[in-house]
Amino acid sequence: MADITGIDGEAIVRAARLLGEGGLVAIPTETVYGLAADATNGLGVARIFEAKGRPRFNPLICHVSSIAMAERFVDIDPVSRRLIDAFWPGPLTLVLPLKQNATVHPLVTAGLSTLALRMPRGVAAEVIAMLDSPLAAPSANTSGRISATTAQAVADDLGAKVDLILDGGLCPVGLESTIIKVEGDTISLLRPGGLAAEEIEALMGKALKRMDQRAAIEAPGMLASHYAPGAAMRLDVREIHPGEALLAFGPSRARGAENAAHHLNLSETGDLREAAVHLFDYMKRLDATDAALIAVEPIPHEGLGEAINDRLARAAAPRG
């Protein structure tokens, strides 16, 4: 049975101690719950892959509590520094060149010469600062399945595979971080996420290069099939078939919505930020109804809609 505790000073001390001993702790961040291990501890990192059933070729994001900690492990170019100054702490991950003497375990980088780094807000940053070591922390769920945005979702999925779950309530962003890589004059969007690409483009005064889903894996979240429920999914639906579960969006319904066996609305008002917060939680709830198929109404692609549609497309992709 999973050990879930509320967040206070004692819980933070306990989490840091467990991580220092090679343990696994599920920690809430502003994006989703992370399955954390000390990124310099090979046994701890190996336990992440074991608990998630995650492919070893899929790299992990490292979380730091300060820019100074980041600089212990990576080289930061001027463009990336500008992004850090604007958006850290927050839902932005940068893929940066790994320093030769960096002590991050090779399992974290999956053999790449780069490291994906993010600075989270809140309790995650407090635990990292107390440990004084970065945390490797992919989403706290079985690999390829729906990401967890509540402590109970972590417990339901991973259970006793985790030594401790810190319960910080519902994650306020609800989508994994946006992943960016800077190469010379090119800024590539490796994964859309909780920071809208338009915000980055407005700061930098240039368009981001979008990556093809078939591109080589350079960062987490780039697998074609990912974030998937047990049920099949049908996207951009205009008509609901009898017995389907409906994942709705906005005030207007698709034809035949009354035929849905179950339905949840990501945002009655069509607010993309609210939809992002609810996305994974509502997918899990509809999947728990045992409906064979989840039908999803159209969601705009601008702003956070780009990341929401990315997650939905990967959730609906053919599974190997």
TrEMBL record:
UniProt KW keywords: ATP-binding, Cytoplasm, Nucleotide-binding, Nucleotidyltransferase, Transferase, tRNA processing
UniProt xrefs under PROSITE patterns: YRDC
Subcellular location: Cytoplasm
GO molecular function: ATP binding; double-stranded RNA binding; L-threonylcarbamoyladenylate synthase; tRNA binding
Residues the entry annotates as binding L-threonine: T31, A137, S177
Leading EC class: transferase
GO biological process, one term: regulation of translational fidelity
E.C. number(s) listed in UniProt: 2.7.7.87
Protein name (Swiss-Prot/TrEMBL): Threonylcarbamoyl-AMP synthase
